[in-house]
Specification:
Elements lengths: L2 H14 L1 H38 L12 H4 L24 E2 L15 H10 L8 E9 L8 E8 L3 H5 L11 H5 L3
Parallel strand pairs: 1-2
Antiparallel strand pairs: 2-3
């Protein structure tokens, strides 16, 4: 058979079976659209989960200074001995995390700005290092009509980058505020 003869037979079959051709074409179009839609929903869901995972700050590592009393028996330095106290002076409002006092603790050990600099220098692969000092307090002011218990955190200017958090009201302190101990 020649090509012209084949095309003529195809045309005659299409004209004779219009409803079959229409329904078959509609099925192909709906099937293709469904596949594209399912793939788009899958990719969108994958991107949404990746964004939520990023906001969980799963790549962050918290380091807390604890005393030998908090750690319990057998914990601490080499061979189960007492933990070495961190170097540096009084706690700075800078990078790291302060120990949270407990009932069992008689003294508080904190990480200092010098400790944070040491961590940043000695541990490879860290993007950011910061200090977080937090506690609970009662606050009153602004538009509050009565006292509220709230968590207050002292952080450095790089904390938003480390935590992937954003401020709902107000703004984070900047480098100038930190330099001025504001």
């Amino acid at each position: 058979m020649r090509l012209g003869e084949i095309l003529r037979l195809v045309w005659l079959n299409i004209v004779a079976n219009r409803s079959k051709v229409l329904l078959t074409s509609l099925g192909i179009i709906v099937g293709s659209a469904t596949i594209v839609l399912v793939l788009a929903i899958g990719r969108g869901g994958q991107a949404d989960v990746a964004d939520q995972f990023k906001n969980l700050n799963a790549g962050a590592i918290d380091v807390e200074a604890v005393t030998a009393q908090q750690a319990g028996p057998g914990a601490g330095g080499p061979a189960g001995g007492p933990a070495a106290p961190p170097a540096g002076g009084p706690p700075a409002g800078g990078p790291g995390r302060a120990a949270r006092p407990s009932n069992r603790q008689s003294n508080v050990v904190t990480l200092t700005a010098d400790d944070v600099e040491d961590i940043a220098d000695l541990v490879p692969g860290l993007d950011e290092v910061t200090i977080l000092i937090q506690g609970n307090t009662t606050i009153l002011g602004g538009e509050l009509e009565e006292e509220q218990d709230s968590t207050v955190a002292g952080v450095l200017e790089n904390y938003p980058a480390v935590s992937n958090l954003s401020m709902q009201y107000g703004e984070f302190f900047g480098a100038e505020d930190n330099a001025a101990n504001a």
